[in-house]
Amino acid sequence: MRIIILSLLTALAFSPSLQAVEKTTPADLKTAARTFLKDFAEQQKDEGYAVTYSLGNIDSRLNLAPCPDDPSVRFSSDPLSTTQPTLEVSCSGQRPWRMFLSATVEIRGEGLVAARPLSRGDRVTESMIDTQPIVVNSVRRSAVTRRDALIGMELRRSVNAGTVFTPDIVIQPDAVARGDHVIIVARSGPIAVESRGKALANGRIGEQVLVQNLRSERTLRAMITAPGRVEVPM
């Protein structure tokens, strides 16, 4: 009798049905990845974009350790800058594992484009911006998606009508020009003292330039904090 029971237990332990439970299958990986991509598509829909996606092939012979919870999925490359992002699927159980899946993701929406030919040095205004449907993540260096991020910026180079605005096309304009009169703010904690000065070079917000205090005629190195305003430590 004992021999029969032992034989039954041994057979159950090595039965295909039980072994199948004790591993993570390619089907499990596909389910986790598709759920992740579906959630991503819903998030982008709330932002006004339509997302289509598909998964690459997964080796059907793949046999990974069981995962006590659902596998974790994340993008290992930026989906907003490529249509071929990679998904990282991982498990942090007693026998942790990690693998990468290929995917195709296209994010479609209204892109901001030049409404007419524009010249290098132009300051972008509302009338210079138009919209047209684009695959946002197929644009090299990614597309600028907010009008307020463009208006007031300066063009680095000339562009044709219909050119998609990308971060490398525009640059923050000079906030101070050589010879401009500026307000010099000397600050120490909550205490600030203002004086008048003159800029000795061009510069953008966040850059340092030499300025001359008009009262003392001292030359100082100051940081530009706003158009016509610079700051020095007290």
From TrEMBL:
Its main location: periplasm. The keyword Hydrolase does not apply. Gene3D superfamilies: 2.30.30.760, Antifreeze-like/N-acetylneuraminic acid synthase C-terminal domain. One of its GO terms (biological process) is bacterial-type flagellum assembly. Residues 1-20 form the signal peptide. SMART domains: SAF. Residues 109-171 form the SAF domain. Transmembrane segments: none annotated. It holds the Pfam family ChapFlgA. GO terms for cellular component: periplasmic space. Coiled coil: none annotated. Keywords: Bacterial flagellum biogenesis, Cell projection, Cilium, Flagellum, Periplasm, Signal. It is found in: Periplasm. Belongs to the FlgA family. NCBIfam families: flgA_cterm. Involved in the assembly process of the P-ring formation. It may associate with FlgF on the rod constituting a structure essential for the P-ring assembly or may act as a modulator protein for the P-ring assembly. This is Flagella basal body P-ring formation protein FlgA.
